[in-house]
TrEMBL record:
GO terms for cellular component: plasma membrane. It comes from Thermoflexus hugenholtzii JAD2. Its cofactor is Mg(2+). Pfam families: Glycos_transf_4. Mg(2+) binds at N163. Its main location: membrane. This is UDP-GlcNAc:undecaprenyl-phosphate GlcNAc-1-phosphate transferase. One of its GO terms (biological process) is cell wall organization. It is a multi-pass membrane protein. One of its GO terms (molecular function) is metal ion binding. The lineage of its organism: Bacteria, Bacillati, Chloroflexota, Thermoflexia, Thermoflexales. The chain crosses the membrane at residues 54-73, 80-99, 111-128, 140-159, 171-191, 198-216, 222-242, 247-266, 297-315.
Length: 345
């Protein structure tokens, strides 16, 4: 089987499974009482189940297992070990999120659970061992303690970035789908030699996200919930590591939500508030309150992820990528200036 046909099969299977499982997840969310009701910072209409993570997990997991049966060359003998860590950590992230969706866990237990899940990735050979120096192009290897801290920080950071991004219908799932497409193109076509078996994983993630978006696009009838957001964040973080060690590519494509998280933590800290305190001072909420339509917000976030991801794919020089990122930072500052922060609700 050719790689394009295998990738298309994986993508369509994940798309179909996610589309079929989303109505089931919606009904299950109602039955289990996992409901978001309007009030406070939530200004949607009606009662919306926040159980979309179940559909995403089912579609991605089954599709990834199916992909292992396809006759695609696998050059890394340790790929199965990393794949096990990916699926195990994704499942544990889903479970942690489901508990939060049911019981609304305090920040402490949430972060502890995320840290343990991130630490569990290490025995499965999922870790950030080095980065490329943008000035010399040579890898810069880290000592073991730094490897552990950096990996845990990265995986927890991605889980919380996607979780905080999930505030406008279709936003988090759409951005993750775009970044997954970038990782697919990188692993499948940009690497030399290409990692076709690894590239099937982000293809499955993109298909699962797009199937879910049929039910999550504005006005949404199904939300990600913490289960879906933590699951997507963990999977995306792991794929950035095992998909050719392109953490920098994901950082570029996710620069807008990552910058919002960093800015928001500093903003709340300066005002004597806990960074984990909920409110409508997230950028997407501020843009909504400033009069932006959901469609305009989605276009801005999607466009930023696609352009930044395309730059990461097309520009080979790390130095030129850094310069391009400065230009994107200027765009980001313009977006931030469109909606001054408000007092959170």
């Amino acid at each position: 089987m050719s790689f394009p046909l295998a990738a298309l099969s994986v993508f369509l299977l994940a798309l179909g499974l996610s589309t079929g499982a989303s109505p089931l997840a919606e009904r299950l969310g109602h039955r289990l009482g996992m409901i978001d009701r309007p009030g406070g910072r939530r200004r949607h209409r009606g009662e919306i189940p926040r159980s979309g993570g179940l559909a995403l997990w089912l579609a991605f997991t089954l599709t990834v297992l199916f992909a292992q049966l396809l006759p695609i060359p696998r050059f890394d003998p340790k790929e199965v070990i990393r794949l096990t860590g990916l699926l195990l950590g994704g499942t544990l992230s889903l479970i942690l999120g489901l508990i939060d969706d049911r019981r609304e866990l305090p920040p402490g237990p949430q972060f502890l659970g995320q840290a343990l899940i991130a630490l569990l990735a290490l025995p499965f050979l999922i870790f950030i061992e080095y980065v490329n120096n943008p000035l010399t192009g040579r890898p810069l290897y880290f000592p073991p303690p730094v490897v552990v801290l950096l990996t845990v920080f990265w995986l927890m950071g991605m889980m919380n970035t996607v979780n905080w991004l999930d505030g406008v219908d279709g936003l988090a799932g759409g951005v993750v789908a775009i970044v997954a497409a970038v990782l697919f193109l990188h692993a499948g076509y940009r690497l030399d030699p290409p990692q076709h078996s690894v590239a099937l994983l982000p293809a499955a993630l993109a298909g699962a996200c797009l199937g879910f978006l049929l039910f999550n696009r504005p006005p949404a009838r199904l939300f990600l919930g913490s289960s879906g957001a933590l699951f997507l964040g963990y999977v995306l973080g792991v794929l950035a590591i095992i998909g050719g060690a392109k953490v920098a590519t994901v950082v570029m494509a996710m620069a807008l939500p990552i910058a919002d998280v960093a800015w928001l933590i500093a903003y709340r800290w300066r005002r004597g508030r806990r960074p984990t305190q909920g409110g409508r001072d997230h950028l997407h909420f501020r843009l909504l309150d400033a009069g932006w339509s959901p469609g305009r917000i989605l276009f801005t976030y999607y466009g930023f992820a696609a352009v930044a991801g395309g730059i990461a794919l097309l520009i080979p020089s790390a130095l030129y990528k850094a310069l391009a990122l400065l230009v994107l930072a200027g765009v980001l500052l313009w977006v931030l200036r469109q909606a001054p922060p408000e007092t959170p609700v």
